[in-house]
Amino acid sequence: MMLDPTLKIEKITKNFGSYLTLNIYDFPGKYDFKDATPSEISDIQNCGSMIYVIDVQDESFSEAITYLIECMKFIHKLNPKMIYNIFLHKTDAEAFAIDEKKADFVQNIKGAIKHEIDSTDLKNTQLDYHLTTVYDHSLIDCFSKVVQKVIPNINHIVSLLDSLMGNCKMQKVFLFEMISKTYLASDSAPVEPQNYAICSDMIDVVLDISYIYGVKSSKDSLGFDKQTQSVIKLSDSTLLYYKEIEKYLSLICIIKEQDFDRPFLIDHNIEIFRQGLNEIFKSSKK
Predict the structure, then answer these.
(1) DSSP state letter for 286
(2) pLDDT(253) > 60
(3) Quick one: pLDDT at residue 218?
């Protein structure tokens, strides 16, 4: 699949339920920050996180690193708190099939960037590295982690999810935005890629069934509401439990079948989580 290159700055406004709205700015690959307009400068000053994509199948990435450092120098003067996320993209190539080779490549990239940064005043900036490809769920998984860095009071949301998981004997729980399949938060345990992948696939199942059999109240309705729930049983007796929190925002929980003996108590705890989430976002808007 071929996508047209970005020729001008494009602004995308994304609503994550009614709780969160993010403005996403897509800059051309060769954008010259020296030509930034006052409006563009204001946008940069208000941004919390930046994604910089490096094509790892490009044999010479020195030019990409040089441009990254120039971008960071300009942005740092306007917004020293910016978080930088380096997406090492197209890691599906044969050269990265062996984990050891992949790790060596990442270390080479990190070393080259660190070498450039050490000669600047950018030493204390936060850089996070992510390996992505369009052939699995890694791109949205990594994007989710970027989004989480700009969500107000994210630690409180994680604490709520930890309480929900502990009270209901869940193995893992995600708070998903349904359309993009971005997860806004999960419990504090590390996210295993296969857990994210299987929950993401469940969203496809729920959307497909709801689109066919659900009752649509409006043109933009997905055919379900806050009463919608779904359970999928896996071959190892693990259950995936879907429960809507509000329009386009849902919980997906991973739980053992023997711990799903009283679903009404799980729903009660999810309702408590819903109320707590409302309070967190209300307080962040004051």
Answers:
(1) -
(2) yes
(3) 61
Write the DSSP symbol of residue 274.
H
In tens, the pLDDT along 66-108 reads 999 999 999 999 999 999 999 999 887 666 666 777 788 888 8
pTM beyond 0.85: yes
Euclidean distance between CA atoms 255 and 132, whole angstroms: 28
Which residue is listed with tokens 């967190």? Answer: 280
DSSP E strand boundaries for the chain:
10-16, 20-26, 49-55, 83-89, 126-132, 170-177, 182-186, 229-233, 238-246, 249-256
* CA distance to 135, 184, 217, 218, 230, per residue, from 208 (Å): 21, 22, 17, 17, 13
Residue by residue, DSSP assigns 26-58 as: E--TT--GGG--HHHHHHHHH--EEEEEEETTS
DSSP β-ladder status, 126-132 and 83-89? parallel
Nearest Cα neighbor of 43 from 13, 87, 66, 1 is 13
- Give the chain's count of helices (H) and strands (E): 7, 10
